[in-house]
Write the structure tokens for this entry.
Amino acid sequence: MFKNKYLCKFIALLITVITSATLASAAQAQAWKPSKTVELVVGSAPGGSPDVMARVVQNIFQNTGLVASSAVVNKPGAANTIGWAYLNQHTGDAHYIATISPALIGNKLMGTSPLTYTHFTPLNILAREFVVLSVKADSPIKTLADLTARMKKDPQSLSWAFATARGNHNHIVMSMYLKSIGVDPAKVKTVIYPGGGPALTAMLGGHVDVYVASPRSMFPLQKEGRARILGISAAERQTGALAELPTLKEQGSNAVFYTWRGFMGPKGMKAPEIAYWDATFEKLAKSPEWRKDTEQQFWNPSYLLSAAFTKQLEVEYEQTRVILADLGLAK
């Protein structure tokens, strides 16, 4: 009986110690937060959609206090690969996150980069964005039918521009459209810019004829009378301000495609760090500030957090492989 009494006390004490240690460990695991300035890495030049996404997010972080200290860092070049390689240098450090788009998949499939989503920690998708085909307001190309007739007559007669990488969503939509009218995309004069800003400047300066870009870039210019949008890559007419834009599909081209935009971290991030960013971005995605910004940027808000996003990437890798192979872009 004496032995049992002290044995019971010992077991109770042991349980208390183990429970306390477990709770302390769990609390410590859940308590991770940045201890220094967070870098939002952008693999393209200032002015393009990835850069705008990063700056919108950083502004909300700053104004709402979601993240105490953050900064946007542009690392343009090599179809986003320089920026993503920079992120890859910070394995396991959750203070570095970078914008992500389907270009990460496309670059790998085309052989322009060894990196793909498995080299990083996918964090989220925050929004979807369609693609538009645009010309200067004073261009002789007034409609998509005009563009089609011109390209069928002479595929070399017009120059096309987009940013930031061969095989990205802009290139895919351009190629889908050209193939739908019987033109080989490889035979078209194409200029690829390191960012949306330089590409837009080239179009407005008359250095290129057709610009493939986001509604965010072109719709305000159409309203100002400086550009003309010929069609958008949505399956059906959009709501709100973009409702006036005809789709490429309704004009006879089955070029239906969109990109998504979000963030990823370096490989080797720990569960508490991923949980921190999941919670932070979920708060951001539900904030009135984000809703206002997505409306202003003509983004379609639609977020996925880390676990769901990673599964989605597995599916999209195969879908993108099929699309790029069909367009003759995949290795």
Observations:
- The chain has two domains: 38-129+259-326, 132-256.
